[in-house]
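hey m, so remember when u said the tokens were messed up on ur end? i reran from scratch. heres the input so u can diff it against urs
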Amino acid sequence: MKTPEADRSALADATLSLHAGAGSRQSGAPVNASPAFSTNYYTDPDAVGFSANDLTADAPHFYTRWGNPTLDLLESRLAALERGEAAISFASGMAAVSSLFLQTLRAGDHLVLANICYAGVAELANDILPGYGIEVTRVDATRPEAIAAAMRPTTRLVHVETPANPILTLVDIPAVARIAHDGGAELSVDSTIGTPVATKPILLGADYVVHSLSKYLCGHGDALGGAVIGRAESLSRLRKQNLIHLGGCLAPFSAWLILRGMETLAPRMALHEANARRVEAYLAEHPRVRSVYWPGSPRHPQHDLAVRQMRNFSGLLSFNVKDGQGPSTARRLADRLRVFAYAVSLGKAKSLIFYIPTDDLLRSSFRLEGAAARAYRDWSAEGIFRVSVGLEDADDLIADLDAALG
């Protein structure tokens, strides 16, 4: 019988998210969830030397910070879904990004960073990397020519996020990959919002894919995790150096929770997308709403790129309101919503909404000025409502918003 690992590239995402990495099934083996190996250590006197510097790719398990069977399964499944050679799991998405940046960049190197990305990544680049002698140029990544203009002989990495949090701008991955590679750099893509169901950046030319596993891949809001997917040789160095020595390893039980969530990734993303389509259409016609952004809508300014690059448009959308009413609308939603939760985060089974004031984000995280700040305000106005559309009945979600918005 042909197993999923025999030719994983021939299998659909819905199948891979259930079976990839599990290997052949032996008689009497459990068919349901894989076990969580919640142990710190293993007994094998010949496994490896005392130092992780002696670790080899084929070494048996020795210490969970170095590797664990539950993490192995999660990493194999992620690599299969992203069509990468290998994956490494981390304790959070920020641990994954930080480890990748510190592995790839050294003093004197240059990072080109999308100026709209997850706030924690922006703050890492603004506040911490320069202290290590790493230069950072932030650019409008929706314009490949801006990335090309920012490249230097010392550029080692270009990092983008698509769709970008929180305003859902998109990046043309193949175009940016060509620019990065022509300049002797690598490209990493944060695909957390899209998920592997929507976009496979490695197939589009990226060298690394980054995920916050806490979001759609887990799907239930009960575990933190992160991952980097890429070439086996590069990730072997990343594991041996930064994962092990910086210590941001994923707990086995968290990995088990994420694996459990991944089993329903494909049908969940289909329902997230269907519900988001309905909610976006409602918001677009609401008299209080100024603009609504969702890549699956023809109203999105980059919808043509979304159609070329995404097979699922995800469940995250954003909108702003008219006449400077953002703060008062946020208070009204927080007080009146009954199905949506007024809460931060995204990618959960339950619907969430949260208001992000533009001035606060520009000051604290993005630190955009001049034309870049004006471009952001063109999308966000005085503030953006980030809406993570969940798996509830779409009519109930719309009725909840309608009652709260008034």
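this time it looks ok to me. Residues 89 and 177 are 24 Å apart (CA to CA). if urs says something different then somethings off w ur setup not the seq
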